[in-house]
Amino acid sequence: IARLSLHKLVTDGRIHPARIEEVVSKTKKQIEQEVIETGKKTCIDLGIVNLHHELVRIVGKMKYRSSYGQNLLQHSREVANLCATMASELGLNPKIAKRAGLLHDIGKVPDNEPELPHAIHGMKLAEKYKEKPEVCNAIGAHHDEIEMESLYAPIVQVCDAISGARPGARREVVEAYINRLNKLEEMAMSYPGVMKTYAIQAGRELRVIVAADKVTDQEANKISMDLSKQIQTEMVFPGMIKVTVIRETRAVNYAK
Question: Which CATH architecture has domain 2-165?
Fold first, then answer.
């Protein structure tokens, strides 16, 4: 509101107390309308119906909030879609899971700052606006602050973690991710005969290029095995990391 109001005032050129109050008032109304439209559009896009108008407004407000550098509305939409997919795979109701996923962080956008963890505040808001018990519990339990009472709660918790941990999603995650890639490449460069290294596929594969005149085929295979063991011993990582050592030889002649 402050940024838009300031932009309008500077563009207009008339800056005095009465004009400032007028512009701020108009901007507040404009933002409030945009918030409601964003909330409605989000619900339509996700196929969520019969959401209380106040919860629709809160969903719209998420567009203007971020958590660790990740846009809150985008994060909540991701979590909602992931929850629906996971619930379907487990034979649960995907509509309930999607609803809980979308609303899981509503406690982060309060009109008044409560002295409560955001998950608990979000649960109380959901209860206030008559959401189903499964949805309310999933919101309140997604950070283990209350006991999980249905399978929807761990689904929301897992999907929240997946969205937040995606490389590039959050600031602190980005830094740790880049450090992990650099460490992988530095490990590989420490082996004799290695020319270049590339950590690709978000760090799930490490390609190592060795000099053909310095490393034999047998040595290339040994580098691959030794490097895999070193990574396994010295690093913590999700899933697996594929180590590929490439030794290329070329024979080039010209026919004249």
Answer: Orthogonal Bundle (1.10)
More confident residue, 221 or 70: 221
Query: Rounded to an integer, what distance in angstroms lies between the CA atom of residue 178 and that of residue 199?
Result: 10
Q: Rounded CA gap, 243 and 208, in Å?
A: 8
Region 231-242: what's the mean pLDDT?
Answer: 85
For 194, the enclosing helix (H) or strand (E) is: strand 194-200
| Mean pLDDT of all residues belonging to the chain | 88
Q: Compute CA 229 distance to the chain's CA centroid, rounded to the nearest angstrom.
A: 30
Q: Which residues pair with 208 in a beta bridge?
A: 197, 245
In this structure, are strands 70-71 and 66-67 parallel, antiparallel, or unpaired?
antiparallel
Mean pLDDT of 61-84: 88
Return the H-helix or E-strand segment holding 187: helix 171-189
Question: Cα(143)–Cα(147) distance, rounded to whole angstroms?
Answer: 10
Q: Is 70 helix (H, G, I), strand (E, B) or coil?
A: strand
Helices (H) and strands (E) in the chain, counts: 10, 5
Q: Where are the domains of the chain?
A: 2-165, 171-247
What gap in Å lies between CA 210 and CA 15, rounded to an integer? Answer: 66
Could you tell me the pTM of the whole model? 0.61
Cα 113–Cα 108–Cα 153 angle in degrees, nearest 5: 130
Class of domain 171-247: alpha beta
* 28 contacts: CB under 8 Å, gap ≥ 6: 1
Helix %, strand %, coil % of the chain (to 5): 60, 10, 30
Expressed in angstroms, the distance from the first to the final Cα of the chain is 74
Query: Tell me: the pLDDT tens digits for 185-218?
Result: 999 999 999 999 999 887 889 999 999 989 999 9
